[in-house]
Amino acid sequence: MDRIQAMQIFVRVAEAGSFIHAAQTLSLPASTVTSTIKSLEKYLRVRLLNRTTRRVSLTPEGALYLTQCRQILDLIEQTESSLTDSVTRPQGRLRVDMPGGIAHFVVMPNLKDFYRRYPDIYLMIGVNDRRVDLVQEGVDCVIRTGELNDSTLVARPLGRFRWITCASPAYLEEKGIPQTPEDLSHHRAVHYFSGHTKRADEMGFVSGTKKMSVSVSGAAAVNETGLYIKMCLEGFGLAQLAETVVSEHLQEGRLIEVLSDWQPASVPVTLLYPHQRFLSPTVRAFADWVAELIRDSNSSI
Hints:
The protein is of the alpha/beta class. The protein has three domains: 3-82, Winged helix-like DNA-binding domain superfamily/Winged helix DNA-binding domain (Arc Repressor Mutant, subunit A, Orthogonal Bundle); 92-154 and 274-299, Periplasmic binding protein-like II (D-Maltodextrin-Binding Protein, domain 2); 163-258, D-Maltodextrin-Binding Protein, domain 2 (3-Layer(aba) Sandwich), CATH 3.40.190.10. The protein has eleven helices and 14 strands. The chain has helices at 3-16, 19-26, 30-44, 60-82, 100-107, 111-117, 134-137, 169-175, 225-233, 247-251, 281-299; strands at 49-51, 56-58, 92-98, 121-127, 141-145, 153-161, 163-167, 191-192, 202-207, 210-215, 221-222, 239-242, 256-258, 267-274. Helix 1 crosses helix 4 (60-82) and helix 2 (19-26) crosses helix 3. The longest helix has 23 residues, at 60-82.
């Protein structure tokens, strides 16, 4: 039995709470994961996990062993990194997750630059606007926008996005250009909803020290940034978006900013990764690169 591999599999099962989920994130057959844990328990002569039909949980001995395994595996990773050129030439598989707007309009246009710098990193890019569970889904790091409420992850601030309210020229020709938030009672919006959205029909505004939220009627709501932008371009209503994400549409006149004196509050952009003693060189390389992208995109607007 490869004891190091057995530790890695045990940690993954303990974090995922499932043999099947662990096998999927490790790209191993479920039977291999199950047999490895059985062999490990037999070798240690102690039960590490309680099994039920729905989930596995740690025994007291398993919880202690999990802590020690993490320390050992972190030390091995750090030792190996110090003896190779992986810090200066990161390599390996990196699974990242990010909102659609950032993926399509910030990362994708610059992806060739990433591979010029880091040709040995294999990126697995997950694109969606929902909040993923890094541990359960085997994700190395995620990019999130907005305020954070998850204290179990390590957060690295990447910058802030200036947000704007905008609409298509055709929509503004039909409904007129709003001059104040109060004018929105005569307008419609494309609504955006997500798992943490309080009210999809509300638009927020800030002017100096003044803040206000306005309910705006609409005909549809979406939960994906690309579709949200598409509906705005097609004239379905007003939308509030990061200026960086729609900068090309603004420059070419396909979208027009309105209510510039009453902008939505700027939104923080953060990279999150599971807490560990040593930060992976691949995660560090990706974080540095994305932070540079966001800084450059804000300065070019």
